[in-house]
Amino acid sequence: MILYTIYPPEAVMAEENVDDGGFFEIEVEGKRVLLSPDGPGQGRIVRMISTDPEDYLDPRFSPGNMIFWLNPY
Fold this sequence. Notes:
73 residues; mainly beta; four-stranded antiparallel β-sheet; elongated
């Protein structure tokens, strides 16, 4: 693959340290969601990760809703 760019190779090939802001993914009822931790055993939904359009119609998985769990891992 050839990459044509005006940026120097050091800038293009440099490894990026991505700060995820403390977000993490968890599976709830068979659906993957990205959560922002709000305390021990609870988090607020940031986004749903799904390829099924019907999953986005479920109001329980709307961004901003709280999720509670016993052990995420």
